[in-house]
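Hey,

The postdoc asked me to send both predictions to you directly instead of through the lab channel. I've kept everything plain text so nothing gets mangled by the mail client. Protein one:
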Amino acid sequence: GAIPTGQPSPFCQFLASELLPWIAEQWPIDAERRSIFGFSLGALASLQMLRHYPRAFKRHIGASPALWWEDGALIRAFADHRPTAAGTQLLISWGEDEDDPRRAVTPPGMSSDEATGLVERAKIIRNAQTLVEHIRRNDIIKVETYSFPGENHASVPWLSLSRSLGFALRG
């Protein structure tokens, strides 16, 4: 079964307790630049790490986060919980047209009514903005947002990588 996004996933547990310590034993790591990036469902892992292991990464990046997953559990989790890692930074980005069903890139054979339903259920922009509002109430985490003009869910991953690298590598 699915792991509710309000709880740390086995992947996040592995990342925090096994993989990151192993990497630190193998190579010198600059903890001030350690960052995690995720797009869509992958953005949930970045946000779960912020919620459950806030000191594991200095910068968290969520591009077009699929916050509709588990009926918005992660949004509710951040509404009720304030991460406590001082100096942590978060970048949330999305495509300006992600909530527009006419601009959706859909699988072959999907009708326009199905595409409309899918986009309206996902509410990528509205959900991301709600999450940002919850996190900004916590003055400890610096939150940035970026909307890619004229872009949709299919075009955002490539654009967000460039912006995310700049965010992750700043001094």
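Protein two:
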Amino acid sequence: NGVSPPDAEAIFSHGQGLFNEGKLIEAIEDFDDVIRSNRYHSRVYMYRGEARRELGNLPGAVTDLRTAVDMGRSTEWAHQAYTLLGNCLLEDGNNDDAIEHLKHAMVLERDYQPAISILADAYYARGLDRSEKGRFGEAIEDFDAALALNPNHTDAYEKKGIAQHKLEDNM
């Protein structure tokens, strides 16, 4: 980008600004510079991972977000890293892993709304998957978990009713 702030923290701040402006490719370039200069700057992995996700690079995003989680477990923003990783895993169809990371985010920050919302969606997605595989009892449990987190999740109500009907038909 031609302008390179003198230290890793300044480059990181510049990259955050680019990220917030939606200039994701330029932000990633700044984040790459920070990583090259300071491998232990875990928060930069969180931002680069989210930028990669927004650009459609889920494998790169998951790798970065796993690094952010591994390096930043005791930081004040760890719940955000777990939430972003859970969201990527959900988008990638890895519902079980997504649920585990999102539950961990909620352990760290109990009322963190993004984690609660995404976790409800992850339970819903896993419920759909289980329902498609004929595991209706487990699907109902997942739909119930989604509804406990988000009582307004109308799709979960609908799919739970269908799963209950199919479960009764199979008995």
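Summary for protein two, as requested: The chain has a mean pLDDT of 92.

Thanks,
C.
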